[in-house]
Amino acid sequence: MKKEIVLASVLSMTLALSACSGGASTSETTEPTDSPFSDTTPVQSTGAVEEHVFETTVDIFVNALDKNLKNSGAPSPASITPEISEKEAGTFLAGSYYAYAIDDGINLYIMDSSSSGKVQFVQVIANVSKLTKESSNTLGRYDSTLVAMFEPDKDTLNSVDKSLGIASADLFEDYMGLADGTIASYMYTISDGIAFLSISPL
User: Fold this and answer.
1) How far, in Å, CA of 129 to CA of 125, rounded?
2) How far apart are CA 183 and CA 111, in angstroms?
3) Higher pLDDT residue, 91 or 187?
């Protein structure tokens, strides 16, 4: 069966944003209020492989992210034309891979499923060596906003934030944080100068 994901609304929350050691930091807050998810009833899978997806499409998700980033100063993915490529089934189901160049050295990646059009994962990858004060703030806003959008429960969000450690991680030191929330699994790593946030369905 497809994964049932229920998210009535994203609660207001205050998040610490990621800080760059010896560089820029930010203390602004992000309060996502627009949910990209819809209430759904599980549907019997017709294939041999279970479709593991979030109950949202790329367009709906990007529009919700755009609303949640408004007035944050961060570039909106809705204003960026993504590079789209088709990926064959492997680790993930076959689908379209959307790459958004958010800022110099910062990219947002979303992959959907060919069979349903639903999102399989969301990732943000940043080249630390290219970050400026402004772009490091953009990275922090994206990371914090995305985590908040995928966690409808405030207490669980606080636990996820603590386990991931994005706000306290030093971008110039290797690091790994893992967490499971209500509907998503999170991984945040810094390795060889690359900061990587991945969000996938539980």
Assistant:
1) 12
2) 17
3) 187
CB 36 within 8 A of CB 63: yes
Q: Name residues whose C-beta falls within 8 Å of residue 97's C-beta, 6 or more positions apart in sequence.
A: 84, 85, 86, 87, 109, 110, 111
- Closest C-alpha among 124, 132, 121 to residue 69: 124
Residue 132, C-beta contacts closer than 8 angstroms, at least 6 positions apart: 24, 104
Give every CB contact of residue 19 below 8 A, 6+ residues apart in sequence.
25, 26, 136, 140, 167, 168
Report pLDDT for 7.
30
Count of other CB atoms within 10 angstroms of residue 120:
23
Which residue's entry shows tokens 């991931």? Answer: 164
CA distance 163 to 178: 6
Q: Judge contact between 113 and 182, C-beta under 8 A.
A: no
